[in-house]
Amino acid sequence: MKTFALLLAAACAAAAQAPHPLEALVDLARQGPAAPGLAAAIAKTLSPNGGAAVWGQDFLFAAASETHVRIALNHAAPVAMERIPGSNLWIHFVKMRTGVTHAYQYFIEGKPPSNRSDVTGYNPDSYPKNSVPRGTLSGKYVIESKLYGGMKADYWIYAAPGADPAVPAPLMVWQDGQNLVNGDLTRMRLFTVTENLVHQKRIPPLVHVLIAPGFAPDGHPMRSVQYDSMDDRYTRFLLEEVLPEVEKSYKLRRDGYSRAIGGESSGGICSFTAAWFHPDKFARVHSTIGSFTSIQWRPREGRDGGNLYPFLVRKEPKRNIRVWLSDGADDLENAHGSWPLQNIQLANSLKMKEYDFHFRFASAAHNSAQAALDLPESLAWLWRGYDPAKTSEEFQMDPAEKEKPFYRVTIMNRDAW
User: Fold this and answer.
1) 167 and 80, same structural domain?
2) What is the pLDDT of residue 417?
3) Dist CA 312 CA 349 (whole Å)
4) Are 120 and 371 in contact (CB under 8 A)?
5) Which helix (H) or strand (E) is 345 found in, with range?
6) What is the pLDDT of residues 269-321, one digit of tens each?
7) How do 284-288 and 322-328 pair as beta strands?
8) How far apart are CA 397 and CA 395, in angstroms?
9) Using N-to-C axis directions, what is the helix angle for 369-382 and 190-199, rounded to 10°?
10) Is 137 part of any domain?
């Protein structure tokens, strides 16, 4: 029995010290394109079409192509990538700065350049630490909605270390949750960041509800109808249909002070809408690259669009909410509106009404890179001062923010006239 116990302890220690899949992939790529098993490791850890892997200052870029590929980093001249022998994958391995995002673009021979994307140079709290306890992720649940006429949606429940199923827990709901459930292999690394911040007592032991957009009975995607609409139907869907099911596994706090809601793009405006209509149920908002544009604006049908929010915030009574807002100068510009300008407008409106808000405006395009970089900071900021003994707080603008000017736009990519 003693021998078995020693072997078990040794096995557990070895498992704890096993390299993270991304770390193992980067270590393999460091050997060069001829490293045995590199193509298979990329396909398994990223995707068969490649992707980007980051571990510390090591950045691995991989792209699938039958012809030569070059890569441009941070708008510099493109450089040749190296082909992995016997595969259609091309790689580029480089050291770059952490604490920032980096732009990249592929140039594939015989094809137009790929769209510009961004990769995150993560800070330390986005990496797992052996001394930090891990949370628990449920399997996938499926809910059928009466409010949306039989729509079905997937969701998952993640409980941070210290969350007791029998004790009502603070809650954070994430839209597009299907993009978050794969742990550190997702760009946001939500679980690791949560575990590190809980361990540091920077945030409370949260229950994250990760919910995917639904599909109508005929298979029609409902994401935009759910997320971009300027009404409270989606919030009622959460409050009346989803959260009661979650509470079969974990008891939840009912006060808005103990509830946050977050998302990106249309999920970002959706999160703001939930707090706008129901600040007593969701008082903390995490919106990144938010689509505060006219996607669901239907004037002939009497339906408002999210493009109105900057003006509603200025005209309507102030809600008691705390808002983390971020966007990038290279975000979308299309028929629905300008993502950068609308986010700047909203930030100025929140400032004018003296909301408790923070606006991070960087250079990234319409992707998760900036949100992933900021996540340790943004979660700590959003939950700062949380006291489980309280059920409410009057959120006040930071005095340092009051002293700052309104945001102003400077044309950077062309002559003013």
Assistant:
1) no
2) 82
3) 9
4) no
5) helix 339-352
6) 999 999 999 999 999 999 999 999 999 999 999 999 999 999 999 999 999 99
7) parallel
8) 7
9) 30
10) yes
Indicate if 140 and 252 belong to the same structural domain: yes
Between β-strands 356-362 and 322-328, what pairing exists: parallel, antiparallel or unpaired? parallel
pLDDT digits (tens, 9 = 90+) for 149-170: 999 999 999 999 999 999 999 9
Model pLDDT for residues 27-66, shown as the tens digit of each residue: 999 999 999 999 999 999 999 999 999 999 999 999 999 9
Max Cα–Cα distance, the chain, nearest Å:
83
CB 294 within 8 A of CB 337: yes
User: Comparing C-alpha atoms, which of 261, 265, 227 is closest to residue 368?
Assistant: 265
In a domain, 24, yes or no: yes
Q: What's 195's domain CATH number?
A: 3.40.50.1820
Return the H-helix or E-strand segment holding 44.
helix 38-45
Cα gap 189→413, rounded to integer Å:
33
Supply 344's token pair.
């700047």
pLDDT exceeds 90 at position 416: no
Residue 263 covered by a domain: yes
Q: Which domain holds residue 52?
A: 2-121
Give the CATH number of the domain where residue 43 resides. 2.60.40.2450
- Could you write out the DSSP letters of every residue in 281-336? T--EEEEES---SSTT-BGGGTB--GGGHHHHHHHSPPP--EEEEEEETT--EETT
- Six-digit token string for 357: 């808000």
> What is the rounded CA–CA span in Å between residue 186 and residue 188?
6
106-132: pLDDT as tens digits: 999 999 999 999 999 999 999 999 999
